[in-house]
Amino acid sequence: MKAAILESAPGELIVIDDVEHDAPGPREVVIQTAAAGVCHSDLHYMQGKYRTRLPTVVGHEAAGVVVDVGSDVSYVAPGDHVITCLSVFCGTCEYCLSGRLVLCSKRGTRRARGQKQRLSRGGEDIHQFLDVSAFAERMLVHENAVAKITPDLPLDRAALLGCAVTTGMGAVGRTAQVPIGASVVVIGAGGVGLNVIQGARIAGAGRIIAVDRLDSKLATAIDFGATETINASEIDAVEAVKDLTGGGVDFAFEAIGLKETTEQAFAMLRPGGTAVVVGMIPLGTSIELPGVDFMFEKRLVGSLMGSNNFRTDMPRYAQLYAEGRLKLDELVSARIGLEEVNSAFAQMEAGSVARSVIVF
Length: 360
Description:
With about 350 residues, the protein is of the alpha/beta class. It has 2 domains: about 1-160 and about 330-360, Alpha-Beta Complex (Quinone Oxidoreductase, Chain A, domain 1), CATH 3.90.180; about 170-305, 3-Layer(aba) Sandwich (Rossmann fold), CATH 3.40.50.720. It has 10 helices and 19 strands. The chain has helices spanning about 40-45, 95, 155-160, 165-175, 190-205, 215-225, 235-245, 260-265, 310-320, 340-350, and strands at about 1-5, 15-20, 20, 30-35, 55, 60-70, 80-85, 120, 125-130, 140, 145-150, 185, 205-210, 230, 250-255, 270-275, 300, 335, 355-360. The strands form 3 sheets. Strands 4, 6, 7, 10, 11, 18 and 19 form a 7-stranded mixed beta sheet that branches. Strand 12, helix 5 and strand 13 (about 205-210) form a beta-alpha-beta unit. Helix 4 (about 165-175) crosses helix 5 (about 190-205).
């Protein structure tokens, strides 16, 4: 099968090559990939900002159809439509048993070192990326890395539920638990930021301020539910938010992954407010905050994949889409072939797209 392989990082292009997947072991499933979103998280690993074992088949946001299952698989069967998620869970660790599946230790969900790995090329192991490796014509994953959906949901849209939607919507509904009428600012109107914005709209937030440096993205943010926009390339975003709100917002979401914007998000809060870091801040980065602000009960919290419980969250998001309340069609900037993946990452780095989707 054809797959997109990252052989070294940083600075290397992805190579399209033939790889093989092993037969499914106990609790493993083989999925015919239908579509996979091109996510900024992959770019972080390609740029060396985060580390992964190489070579690896990248990609983690996908949807497809189950074609084979191993022994002991009970959740899915061949023919089922599924979404993959990197938040694979074991179901037995302390985090899983206390309801925080996103922090799972992943015990027993991966093949052990020294054991034949799920992917190979010419007899040599290819490492699995984020427990998924979605940029391939087929995926071999643990059954707890998938969520079932109904066949009527288009798979090129369903793929986006696996990361962008779950991360943004979950940051609002699960991590921050934004109440009706709250004031919200979202820094970054890319794929994840747009889902934070529509998550705030669905939650009933009173004011939703979008901050970005591109007018085109800010226009899209309005379509997704922003009530006001600020172009950070033209004015001081922190002062603008304070002026608009009379002192600050209840919730600030950082959806880029930078030191500067994280500190800005915290500075945009009113007393008692909460800043949520949704973006992936590069390894080794330290955040500096004024200590006195904690005297006013301001909080800074992290959000991993929207604090999701994806087996229950994704079907609910699919229902919201079916009801016309969740925008998925508008998130897709382009549908591309696997061989166009390097161009898609270049466009993403330039900030010109919300989400490219590889269609197999």
